[in-house]
């Protein structure tokens, strides 16, 4: 629910996957949006802080925060 709430203003989502590693959250979210516009809006959140996971201090230069976006 936290991931959906974070991206709610970007547009309708069709799927949110939170992969697990050894029974725990891996720290990665795969979000699929209903439209390309929603995905593009989500890209605008690059380097935004999500809990203590994302932000410029955790993101290598040139990569996307939260690792993956479905367009």
Explained architecture:
The protein has 71 residues and is of the alpha+beta class. The radius of gyration is 12 Å and the shape is globular. It has helices at residues 2-7, 36-43, and strands at residues 13-17, 20-21, 24-25, 29-33, 67-70. The strands form two sheets. Strands 1-4-5 form a three-stranded mixed beta sheet. Strands 2-3 form a two-stranded antiparallel ribbon.
- The succession of helices and strands, N to C, reads HEEEEHE
Radius of gyration: 12 Å
Mean pLDDT: 78
Residue windows where pLDDT falls under 50 for at least 5 positions: 56-71
Please report which band the strand proportion falls in: under 5%, 5-15%, 15-25%, 25-35%, 35-45% or over 45%. 25-35%
Main β-sheet description: 3 strands, mixed
Structural class: alpha+beta
Which geometry do the CA atoms define?
Answer: globular
Number of strands: 5
Terminus-to-terminus distance? 21 Å
Estimated helix fraction: 10-25%
Strand order of the largest sheet: 1-4-5
Number of helices: 2
Topology, pairings included?
Elements lengths: L1 H6 L5 E5 L2 E2 L2 E2 L3 E5 L2 H8 L23 E4 L1
Parallel strand pairs: 4-5
Antiparallel strand pairs: 1-4, 2-3
């Amino acid at each position: 629910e936290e991931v959906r709430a974070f991206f709610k203003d970007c547009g309708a989502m069709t799927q949110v996957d939170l992969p697990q590693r050894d029974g725990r959250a891996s720290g990665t979210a795969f979000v699929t949006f209903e439209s390309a516009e929603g995905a593009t809006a989500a890209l605008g959140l690059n380097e935004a802080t999500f809990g203590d996971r994302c932000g410029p201090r955790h993101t290598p230069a040139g990569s996307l925060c939260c690792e993956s976006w479905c367009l």
